[in-house]
Design goal:
With 199 residues, this protein is of the alpha/beta class. Helix content is 47%, strand content 16%. The N and C termini lie far apart (49 Å).
Length: 199
């Protein structure tokens, strides 16, 4: 249980307590060595809770009142926006964040805005905001309410559920590509976005 939870970047302080107990009980275990870096990540994550978002981490004002994808896009006018749909519980989503810096450089050079849409529930609001800081996710952020999430599911999935991460390219309020490549595809993604915007 401990191995699984820590390896999936679950940052609950209780995992740190369990890990320390485990080390005391099994001081010679190889698992302790493997999990030490994960324990450090949990410590670092929980330190971020008390920090403020930086100027490049922007949460959309009154995000809880945005009830449709169209209403959300109105916030960006005619701009081009690359959207990352994710959640704090989604390990593959978080694995992609290590490529954010390269993606950010590409988007900045092209004048493209970055928007992160979280599908998390109300009860993990603090966890969501801390994760933005921990992963240094620069760009705009919104945590979708139930109505907005349903609208996203209707537009991009079958209306009954959703699979994330999902990456969407929008320009001038219109969806250009509803399912682009992912940040870890790097040059292939950048080429895809460049081509899409030339059409």
């Amino acid at each position: 249980f401990l191995w699984n939870e820590m390896m999936q970047d679950k940052f609950q302080p209780v995992l740190l307590e369990l890990f320390n107990d485990f080390k005391k009980q099994y001081p010679k275990s190889n698992f302790s060595t493997h999990l030490q870096s994960n324990a450090k990540q949990i410590e670092d994550f929980n330190k971020k809770k008390n920090e403020d978002l930086n100027q490049k981490q922007k949460i959309i004002a009154d995000y809880g009142k945005i009830n449709s994808f169209a209403q959300l896009l109105n916030q960006f006018g005619d701009k081009t926006v690359f959207i990352d749909v994710w959640a704090t519980w989604c390990w593959p989503c978080k694995a992609e964040f290590k490529y954010s810096k390269d993606l950010e450089q590409f988007l900045n050079a092209k004048g493209i805005e970055m928007l992160f849409i979280s599908t998390d529930k109300d009860e993990v609001d603090e966890q969501w905001k801390t994760m933005i800081k921990y992963y240094n996710l620069k760009g705009w952020h919104i945590r979708a309410n139930k109505v907005l999430l349903q609208d996203l599911m209707d537009k991009f999935w079958d209306g009954k559920g959703y699979a994330i991460p999902r990456y969407i390219l929008v320009s001038g309020g219109k969806v250009i590509n509803a399912n682009t490549l992912k940040p870890s595809d790097k040059e292939q993604l950048y080429s895809q976005l460049t081509t899409e915007l030339k059409k």
